[in-house]
Amino acid sequence: MATLLRSKLSNVATSVSHKSQAKMSGMFARMGFQAATDEEAVGFAHCDDLDMEHRQGLQMDILKSDGGEEGAEPPLEGDIHYQRDGTGPLPPSASKEGGVCSELSGQGKPKITAWEAGWNVTNAIQGMFVLGLPYAILHGGYLGLFLIIFAAVVCCYTGKILIACLYEENEDGEIVRVRDSYVDIANACCAPRFPTLGGRIVNVAQIIELVMTCILYVVVSGNLMYNSFPNLPVSQKSWSIIATAVLLPCAFLKNLKAVSKFSLLCTLAHFVINILVIAYCLSRARDWAWDKVKFYIDVKKFPISIGIIVFSYTSQIFLPSLEGNMQNPKEFHCMMNWTHIAACILKGLFALVAYLTWADETKEVITDNLPSTIRAVVNIFLVAKALLSYPLPFFAAVEVLERSLFQDGNRAFFPNCYGGDGRLKSWGLTLRCALVVFTLLMAIYVPHFALLMGLTGSLTGAGLCFLLPSLFHLKLLWRKLLWHHVFFDVAIFVIGGICSVSGFIHSLEGLIEAFRTNAED
User: Fold this and answer.
1) Is the peptide bond prior to 110 cis by the omega test (within 30 degrees of 0)?
2) Where are the domains of the chain?
3) pTM of the model
4) Segment 125-143, tens digit of pLDDT
């Protein structure tokens, strides 16, 4: 009797533990989607729903085990659905009577195809930040073009090896998925001595990248409006303040489904704008300054260009969740190949023709070089896109901060910022508003799009895209790797580390100098 009782208690404890882990991994996977779409906001709500369905599928075995044992306690409320306060009844579709199983059998929403997954990746790496690539060619010449190609190849490879870290071989020799997110991979690499250290490092890098992305949106909004209406007595700082006033309601956001619909339209408009810029450049093909593109680099500013290029390719943080939601995960490698090849070609052409058109007069945001008759219309569309894209990285950063600092159970550093009814407390709302104001202050004191983009790319972009994937691949799968894989991983880690440190130092020096100049003014 005692043995039976002990066995049941052990099963119940294991079930609850699995549920808690699945809940947290679902949250981080969801954060991965938000990090991926923080630039483009394409299909955000759709991917969010698909990710929830995927997490529900992961609970099938747990629900069966709960229902299969007599006397087992019912599933905990809130274990499947994403809820801030962790309360609320389970929906009928997720009940034990086959709700989850019916979802998996195809009656629920389908998982995404390889084309849909490719659309998400394309929009993550083909964002409005490509507007800074011609500036990278200005300081790198042909080496900058080579770096665009090299970054595409490396990011494609590291994306594949990151997904390989999600799988392990079981006792029957079958390859099975044992991890669900970038955070799970990081924690597995640091276990058993530091089981949560890796996840915390990834989360910190993700928060930095998300907040810096918000700052860049404010900077680019102020810059574009100032250069669109130079005759108005409104400075770039004032335009940034106006943009932030428009963005302040983001502090009250509870979901992003409505915003994502508008952002989809802005993304489509952005592709049209890119085509218009290229068409204008082609119309001036006779005046292209081929002699200005040389095999030289500006030693002081080229490392900043490295960060700009790397930042434009960041997508690794959401790839594990994306691959888990694909109908056929075997198509993931092919999808990564064609998306990065397309990105490489389009970015290279866009950067080259834009630089050839304006040569040494190329500005940090290339649309500022357009004639005044076209510039205002194009820039207004880009500002609208930036303002509608801002809520996505902001909301993602807020949720990561709230989960880790205020809602992480007994390990939380501060009291829960939500009340028993799930409503945000006043001081929690104040902290959200403070985050919006912080992005404004950074945009005011360091209104340099290229420097901020280079700093972010060198710090978090290189870490998440180059350093960590190669390190995790070596740590988890080194016994099964062929010698050329080991060589590639080590080479990427070393080269990525050198570029990251060099770009970070030069970008930081430029930011400090700019900060001092603005403080004196």
Assistant:
1) no
2) 114-408+422-520
3) 0.71
4) 877 778 889 988 888 888 8
The backbone torsions φ and ψ at residue 209, rounded to the nearest 5 degrees and listed phi first, read: -65, -40
What are the helix (H) ranges across 105-196? 114-125, 133-140, 142-164, 182-190
Q: Could you give phi then psi for residue 293, rounded to 5 degrees?
A: -90, 110
List the structure tokens of 226: 């100032």
3-state secondary structure 67-90: HHCCCCCCCCCCCCCCCCCCCCCC
Contact 108, 93 (CB under 8 A): yes
Q: Which residues pair with 175 in a beta bridge?
A: 169
H helix runs in 423-482, sequence order:
426-445, 449-456, 462, 468-477
Which range is least confidently modeled, 26-35, 190-199, 404-413?
26-35
Q: Measured in whole angstroms, how far is the alpha carbon of residue 245 from the centre of its chain?
A: 25
Average pLDDT over residues 43-58: 39
CA dihedral 119, 124, 129, 135 (to 10 degrees): -90
- Indicate the fold that domain 114-408+422-520 takes in CATH: Amino acid/polyamine transporter I (1.20.1740)
The residues, any chain, with a CB within 8 Å of residue 475's CB and separated by 6 or more, are 189
**For residues 334-343, average pLDDT:** 93
